[in-house]
Amino acid sequence: MSLKGTNQEFGRPYNRRIVLETIRQHGPIERAGIAQRVGLTVQTVANIIRELEELGLVTGERTLRKSRGSPPTSLTINPQGAYAIGVNVTPRGIEAALVDLAGSIVAAKRIDLSPPAPEESFRIIGKLVDGFRSKTNGRMVLGIGLAMPGPFDVDKMSFVGPTTLESWRGVAVAQRLSERTGLAAFVETDMAAAALGESLHGAGRNVRAFYYLYFGVGLGGSMVKDGVPLRGFYGNAGEIGHVPLVPNGQPCSCGNTGCLERYVSLEAYQRRAPVIGQAAWIAEAAPLLRNAIVTIENLFDPETVVIGGIMDDALLSELAAAIEPLPTSVADRKERSAPRIMRSASGQDAVLRGAASLAFSGVLSPRLGRAESLEKDPLFARSRVA
Question: Which 3 state secondary structure label does DSSP give 70?
């Protein structure tokens, strides 16, 4: 799905977002190429580019031309033009990272804290943010994104059990985070945040529709189409870990029995492997994961299923290898452009880059930003041209 400009009342900041996103996706790219892609005039694009260059968000380089006339300028995102902070809070502790505009992690810190209580967590995050700010050379920090286990706002499932943050029920996370850091704050499930990061900066850049299977402490996932995670009506789409797959299986904290994440997740591995051994756990988990992936393929018909998360890379690779060969599904076709299973290109950093992407998305991705909040857009506020 291509991005198009608009002439509506809030069009100018919206068009800035479109131009920035187009440069990020397709740069190096010339002004004429941007105009063609977004449906704006070359002059309008040139005016926006001038503003973005003044803000230091994009850079241009003259390209060689054999014909007469001035050579065109190829535009790219300036990675050091702005930053965002990504935070991942799990039942095991807090991870945070300073991420540049290109999605690279500039600095990162992990704090082991089990379980992480809200008050202590906000204090720690505030100190981490203060430290990260000293590494930006005075450039903009657009905001902070926090990822945490879901689902949200489900009485019998949210903040219940070993894969969730039980003490965080009723906490106004975004508000508290913004008050503590002074930054625009965004909160998302860990699986959706990681899927967004993979779409913007990882394996998902080269596919239009993929399912991201996220191995956190629990297990979740998110279907991504044209760079946008499918969130569902209540924002909890993708909770595949709570699909009951084992009849009369182990009790789950959600109240059901035999849920997938009781057998296939970091929590399941850390509970079972010390008893039966790593190889035995993989042999136990692989058939269930295989069936889950076939179910995902038949339900969503993705180009590929991307596997990632905070589980150890070597362990995740062993588990991914153990599910081959996959049974027949709608994805079993000869003319495939991508393999049925791909490993995350971001590894264990996917959720941090994704959490930071929550803040970047308000500027870079007009499909994710809200029109009614554009008057608070850092580009709109800082630009000299109304």
Answer: coil
